[in-house]
Amino acid sequence: MVRIGIYGYGNLGRGVENAIRQNDDLELVAVFSRRDPATVKINTPGVPVLKAEEAEKMTDKIDVMIICGGSATDLPVQTPALAKLFNVVDSFDTHAKIPEHFDNVDAAAKQSGKTAIISAGWDPGMFSINRLYGGAILPDGKDYTFWGKGVSQGHSDAIRRVEGVADGKQYTIPVDEALAAVRSGSNPELTTREKHTRECFVVAKEGADKAKIEAEIKNMPNYFSDYDTTVHFISQDELNEKHSGIPHGGFVIRSGKTGANSENTHIIEYSLKLDSNPEFTASVLVCCARAAARMNGENTIGCKTILDIPPSYLSAKSGAQLRKELL
Amino acid sequence: MVRIGIYGYGNLGRGVENAIRQNDDLELVAVFSRRDPATVKINTPGVPVLKAEEAEKMTDKIDVMIICGGSATDLPVQTPALAKLFNVVDSFDTHAKIPEHFDNVDAAAKQSGKTAIISAGWDPGMFSINRLYGGAILPDGKDYTFWGKGVSQGHSDAIRRVEGVADGKQYTIPVDEALAAVRSGSNPELTTREKHTRECFVVAKEGADKAKIEAEIKNMPNYFSDYDTTVHFISQDELNEKHSGIPHGGFVIRSGKTGANSENTHIIEYSLKLDSNPEFTASVLVCCARAAARMNGENTIGCKTILDIPPSYLSAKSGAQLRKELL
After folding, report:
1. Tell me, what's the pLDDT at A186?
2. Do B126 and A137 touch (CB under 8 A)?
3. Mean pLDDT of all residues in chain A?
4. How near does any CA of chain A get to the CA of B242, in Å?
5. Closest chain B residue to A136 measured between Cα atoms?
6. 8 Å CB contact of A132 and B271
7. pTM
8. Which residues contact B39 (CB under 8 A, 6 or more apart)?
9. At B61, is the secondary structure helix, strand, or coil?
10. A75, A267, B311, B317: which could form a disulfide with B273 (CB 3.0–4.6 Å)?
11. Digit-coded pLDDT (tens) for B165-206
């Protein structure tokens, strides 16, 4: 059994808890929270909720700590600190800062002799693996990543900061024509606007100027101005009823050539269609926890990413079983 | 530079030769053939074609031998024999016999201190990896593999053995309705007949009984009788003109549930659309050769499959580059 702790109990932490229950070789030992443990109700009977500070007393009871904080401010601090005590897994997803985060976590884990797996999930994560496989197999080619249809938390937050907006949700949607062009193997050059559209469902405060809200959203730099954006005004009830989910997904497509004269085209496509973004991410984190325990047992120390994990280490099945059943 | 030998020079061997040229860190050292080397023309200037028996004299010049024989009779003998001399990669694809082949190659490679990677390609190979990832991430689920549209060599051979048939080609085609049902997340139970159809293009010998040929094909056990099969009679010219390619591909789809009450469905789909089956397989073999050289350098000895290879080992890029560019 791999004994697991969950550090941080939001959507992602709850997803990890549910995912652990789907795996007979994994055991949830404790949930750690910065909130008052008495106020945190979890789904697994008999498992304690402890204050975050108590983690350091549990080093002999937990094989892998899955850290479920946010990438902006939590993980840059939590992952290096916890890697001094535990094997850890996180879902750090600020792409531009991954090298820096890697170095910080690597130094901590090497000092403690632990194994740390960072940036697990689907992007970074499974999408990264597919970009890697595609590029390695078809070096004479090009890869494309499309996101959606799905809810972008960052863009939804941006909408909600607009004056006069009470609530809002934003969907990122890949453009069908762009997907078709990529799948044709023509290796098109696509602009930001050609790849994705953005659809916003906005609840306006009473008496707010809707035309002004719409204009402000559509012209918002970085978030919306480079995209074709649609804004729908709806009621809070309709938003709650129809847009409370956190679906997401997307596509990684590699198109490449082979042959004596590059005469043959190949298309590799990987896609995800997820009802719940945090629950799927949690499911990846849980597999990585299994791998982290095994790698540490083999003395593979320091910071790793999902790109460094032999696929078989993610599975509960033995090598012989995998060869017989899946190869 | 990883110095590579090609053992066997048919469609697959030619594909490996072309793929090596796409990778700056790989070098083709020699091609080995059972034919008279004087009769074998290869595409790479300055590279010698040698008799198969001469391989054993080249152990200090070749880092990895890519074995391009057939799975029926060549590889079961060649891979264990060559693993006593070289790091090797093969594409052994008789699924039911993989455990036995693994054991034979493992014993040979452990004796010599070499690294052997067997059953690389796309199925077994990339499809296997995707079945593994899907099952590890979504244990409460089901996976489906569809093949095609593509040419099945085994079924084309079976057609050509029918009395009165001069030539023929068979396409395996996934059924759209079955794909749609799987993508819906309903986890359908599908029969063999519901998943694929088979389409045959047949050139009849002069005076042959076409109705008899058609009936014999459609009722052939194992190959066709469990499928809805269509037979088209065409001329040799039309067969040559329109059906000389070796396209293939297919789909691996994992559908699974997460959540406190299994309320969320996720669909993971991996698909390939390949103009040339052997050239794509060759491209996978070449990445595996890179990994075999690196694993042997790290003293990872014995038989491995693509399920055991850290994805990053397939790439020519460094870990830092991969984290920065792809993660």
Report:
1. 92
2. yes
3. 97
4. 16
5. B315
6. no
7. 0.96
8. none
9. coil
10. A267
11. 999 999 999 999 999 999 999 999 999 999 999 999 999 999
Closest residue to B260, CB basis, from A18, A139, A320:
A18
pLDDT tens figures, B101-136:
999 999 999 999 999 999 999 999 999 999 999 999
| CA distance linking residue A161 with residue A97, whole number of Å | 25
Residue pair B107/B116 in contact (Cβ under 8 Å)? The answer is no
Interatomic CA distance for residues A75 and A78, integer angstroms:
5
Residue B52 gets the label, from left (phi > 0), alpha (psi -120 to 50) or beta, of: alpha
pLDDT-derived band at A80 (thresholds 50, 70, 90) equals: very high
Q: Extract the tokens encoding A285.
A: 């984190």
pLDDT band at A264 (very low <50, low <70, confident <90, very high): very high
Nearest to B266 among A263, A274, A306 (CB): A274
CB contact under 8 A, A274 and B280: no
A326:B18 CB<8 A? no
Q: State the pLDDT at residue A256.
A: 97
Q: Verify whether the Cβ–Cβ distance B258 to A133 is below 8 Å.
A: no
SS3 for B312? helix
Q: Looking at beta carbons, which residues of chain B come within 8 Å of A135?
A: 315, 326
Q: Of A119, A130, A132, which is closest to residue A304 (Cα–Cα)?
A: A119
Neighboring chain A residues of B133 at a CB cutoff of 8 Å: 126, 129, 311, 314
What pLDDT is attached to residue B204?
97
Give the side-chain half-sphere CA count within 13 A for A119.
32
Give the chain B residue nearest A266 (alpha carbons). B274
pLDDT band at residue A93, thresholds of 50, 70 and 90?
A: very high
Q: What is the DSSP letter of B12?
A: H
* CB < 8 Å to B128, chain A: 326-327
Q: Per-residue pLDDT averaged across A299-309, rounded?
A: 98
